[in-house]
Amino acid sequence: MNTSMKCWEISAHGMENLALATAPRPQPKRGEILVKVDAVSLNFRDKEVMDHGMTAKLQFPFVPTSDMAGTVVEVGDDVTRFAVGDKVISTYITNWIDGVPGTWAQMPTQGGPIPGMLAEYVATPADWCVPAPSSLSPAQAATLPIAGLTAWMALVETGGLKAGETVLVQGTGGVALFAVQIAAAHGANVIVTSTSDEKINRAKALGARHGINRLIEPEWDVAVKALTGNRGADHILELAGGDLQRTLRAVKPGGRISIIGLLESEELSAPIMALLASRATLTAVAVGPRRALEDMVRMVELHAIKPVIDKVYAFDDAPAAFAHLVRGAVGKIVIDVSGHGS
Predict the structure, then answer these.
(1) Is the CATH code 3.40.50.300 the one for domain 159-284?
(2) Average pLDDT of each block of 10 consecutive residues along the chain (342 residues)?
(3) Contact yes or no for 26/121 (Cβ under 8 A)
């Protein structure tokens, strides 16, 4: 095995500083596994970390990205969870195995402040990985750790989703399309909002029953009420941010709003009387523990769910992949590290 490897790293904040480099191939320490990275999926967080750290203090040069799927090629002493040849995916929030999470300081995250996955090899504690779904390709499996688990936590783990309930999903990004598939698999009535009929149709192909084009129906809360017999949605995934007034009008009395990613605004605002009148529960969802990721992997295999990938880029084309992330995607953007393809 070569003693060196290729990796992408930044020498300072800013995507313009992303450069391909050669580094020593890491050696697994006690409790660690050496993983040959097959694929990495991109999250908007990865761009934010490169741009300004996103509250994390980075040590430069810094390897970005959080999510990977790969193959174990070496194990350190005392490793019992995995053996050479096992297929694994990373977890995002380290040290959160189950139960109530600790502070961010107690559970640092992969891809900032912990060095990330955009390399040919990574050495990582075995406890920070889970077995990859046997039903998915490496590119598909790499999309699960953040986007897939976030949707799972919002709807199933903390949301207690039941068959027959109505789920409103905003947009068609990675978390949104996972939410459509997970909700449909649980027998929910799924409504998707978008500014594109084409994207709505793609969401319907994944199990959404209704779509609302916000350009045609800007008062989408009224449309949601009409589609639910004036009852409102049981669950709403708030993925945009900004003014919550329409979201509060669209949720059923006492329903649930999961605050996930503020793609259009970093602020949330709502009149207090509207919030009180809705009697809604607002819950912030920030991915989840390893045990929940293992649960979701079993569900993905059981229901034959296939993550939606907009495009797979070659390892040498990482900057183009990040550019695609910035301009927007339907589903996930993936970088093929090992040349296995999609």
Answers:
(1) no
(2) 92 97 97 98 95 90 98 97 98 93 84 97 98 98 98 96 97 94 98 96 97 96 97 93 86 95 69 89 93 98 96 98 94 92 57
(3) yes
133 backbone φψ class: left, alpha, beta (φ>0; ψ -120 to 50): beta
Token digits of residue 313:
């880029």
d(C-alpha 304, C-alpha 236), whole Å: 24
What region, left, alpha or beta, does residue 160 occupy, with left being phi > 0 and alpha being psi -120 to 50 degrees? left
Give dist(CA 102, CA 105) in Å, integer: 8
Q: Does the fold of domain 159-284 match that of domain 4-145+288-336?
A: no
* Angle formed at CA 300 by CA 163 and CA 108, multiple of 5 degrees: 105
User: pTM for the whole thing?
Assistant: 0.95
Superfamily of domain 4-145+288-336: Medium-chain alcohol dehydrogenases, catalytic domain (3.90.180.10)
Token pair, residue 321, equals 């992949």
CA distance 157 to 236: 15
Domain segments of the chain as ranges: 4-145+288-336, 159-284
